[in-house]
Amino acid sequence: MSDAIHTEDLTKTFRGVHALRGLTLNVPEGAIYALVGPNGAGKTTAIKVLMNIMIATSGRAEVLGRDSTKIAAEAFCSIGYVSENQKLPNWMTVDAFLGYLRAFYPAWDRELEEALVKQFQLPRDRKLGKLSRGMRMKAALASALAYRPKLIVLDEPFGGLDPLVRDEVIEGLVERAPEATVFLSSHDLAEIENLASHVGYLEDGSLRISEEMVSLSERFREVEVTLNDGASVPGALPGSWMQVRNSASVVRFVDSRFEQERTEAEVRKVFGEVRNVAVTPMSLRSIFLTMAKTGRGMA
């Protein structure tokens, strides 16, 4: 499988401040890839470099096999791009806006346009400037999906949306996902967990992890070990154990490379025989909070 997006040692600085630090990223074709991380991590900068809105300080990026610095009008016939703060022509009605865009996209599908308008309940006769934030996002998304792009790029698409609108936007994405690769940035981890097939965690301009969602969910576990009387916590612990804390006879930690037999064997090696080992799955939010607190990606 080839990559819809590939970056190699991508760096972007603003007056000596690093927004991206050697970003190397691969987004497989057909993936729903979520780039997540705290505000200021570099997510929007990465997308703007990919979309040729910004030029990287160093490194290179390819989008659909094309150098990102060559992304221009023709290339956007295959790319649907929607950003959180995207400017729309407020004086246009929804109908006029969609009609204006049709001429620029040879593959524009009028039947799909109509289906999207109905799905998102867009009022064709209303001016874009009179729509709510959620309706404006849905109008922008409809305009980016109606020509069946090979790649859909979304920068913080859920920001400021109420739960119902978020669900409608996600439903529209999921229905179109089999036809395209989706690359989105977000800090809304609860929504990403139910949507993404792949996830990358960006922190301070550096990519800490990048892998399939299933793999990430399987390798992180909260572990609680109940020790026998008199047992203590030694100074040397496995490198994959994060946020180790103990209280009385109980030791708790997060194992970032969890495997049932391996983890239990490590517990016995460190503590000897123990009373009990309890293992609990973790949400995506809990995983990233753990990584943020420890400052380690543990890829």
Structural commentary:
The protein is 30% helix and 31% strand. By secondary structure, the chain is α/β, with parallel strands linked by helices. The chain has two domains: 3-212, Rossmann fold (3-Layer(aba) Sandwich), CATH 3.40.50.300; 221-281. Strand 7 (151-155), helix 5 and strand 8 form a beta-alpha-beta unit. Helix 3 (110-119) runs antiparallel to helix 4 (133-145) and helix 4 (133-145) packs parallel to helix 5. The protein starts with a strand and ends in a 5-residue tail after the last helix.
Compact summary:
The protein is of the alpha/beta class and 299 residues long. It has helices at 43-50, 94-102, 110-119, 133-145, 163-176, 189-193, 213-219, 260-271, 284-294; strands spanning 3-14, 17-28, 32-36, 58-63, 66-67, 79-83, 151-155, 181-186, 198-203, 206-212, 221-227, 241-247, 250-255, 274-281. It has 9 helices and 14 strands.
Order of helices and strands: EEEHEEEHHHEHEHEEHEEEHEH
Mean pLDDT rating: 90
How do the strands of the widest beta sheet line up side by side? 6-7-8-3-9-10
Number of strands: 14
* Oligomerization category of the chains in this entry: single chain
Helix content: 25-40%
- The CATH H-level superfamily of the largest domain is P-loop containing nucleotide triphosphate hydrolases
**Alpha-carbon Rg, integer:** 23 Å
Which CATH class of the largest domain is shown? Alpha Beta
* Biggest beta sheet attributes: 6 strands, mixed
Structural class: alpha/beta
CATH architecture of the largest domain: 3-Layer(aba) Sandwich
Q: How many H/I helices? A: 9
Any low-confidence stretches, pLDDT <50, length ≥5?
Answer: none
- Within the CATH hierarchy, at the fold level, what is the topology of the largest domain? Rossmann fold
- What's the number of domains? 2
Name the beta content range.
25-35%
Give the overall shape.
Answer: elongated
How far the N terminus sits from the C terminus, by CA atoms, comes to: 22 Å
